[in-house]
């Protein structure tokens, strides 16, 4: 079963090899819509926007919001402040559409897709892939019996791939300045991030892979060293000078 819908400003695709009822897939997309209602920085009525404006206390928000805020705090601490969703509230940054006082978008997409993967597992599916704009969670194998193959966007040549990752169970997330340009700001300095044009992280959990990739781009030249110190993940970075830097174990995931 395959289905693709436009949500969160991107395409979310679900491919399930096992037989599941259509209602299971419907429930996934209702979940994705719920995530938009809670976390979209483009919606004035989302809970994260209301918290940012002081109209809703974080303690009164939905349980999902508390979970995401706690995860963001963890990554902020681990990254020494390079991943900080409160930057927009603390700094006098130029107002931009989609940028509010709180912006958890560097983690929440991966977290939401990981939750969707758990929903599929609970429904009995064991072989599937969920792809939300290049952030991917997969379990089991595709119908071919091989590993899932995930293309990594080339930062400058948009019609080409920089690499193809092969995985069976796990997650792949990519963060890149080629998509957001100078909108990727190092919260520690308040200036646009420099040094890494794109970072791809593979690991067991898409929420952390997503957040780690975002933090590494903000860290710039120190990003790959920081990722090499994170247990359970491997990564590939492409520098502004078009040099590829990988952690020691990343090569095992690459298609020859």
Task: Give me a quick take on this structure.
The chain is of the alpha+beta class. About 35% of the residues lie in helices and about 25% in strands.
Protein architecture, described:
The protein is an alpha+beta fold. 34% of the residues lie in helices and 25% in strands. The strands form 3 sheets. It has an 8-stranded antiparallel sheet with strand order 1-2-3-4-7-10-11-12. Strands 5-6 form a two-stranded antiparallel ribbon. A hairpin with a 7-residue loop joins strand 5 and strand 6.
Chain-wise SSE layout:
Elements (H helix, E strand, L loop, with lengths): L1 E6 L2 E7 L5 H18 L7 H6 L10 H16 L8 H4 L14 H18 L5 E5 L2 E5 L8 E6 L7 E7 L2 E7 H4 L4 E2 L4 E2 L3 E8 L2 H14 L3 H6 L5 E6 L4 E3 L10
Antiparallel strand pairs: 1-2, 2-3, 3-4, 4-7, 5-6, 7-10, 8-9, 10-11, 11-12
Q: What string gives the helices and strands in order? A: EEHHHHHEEEEEHEEEHHEE
Main sheet overview:
8 strands, antiparallel
Residues in helices, as a percent range = 25-40%
Mean pLDDT: 92
The chain-level structural class is alpha+beta
Supply the key terms.
256 residues; alpha+beta; two-stranded antiparallel sheet; globular
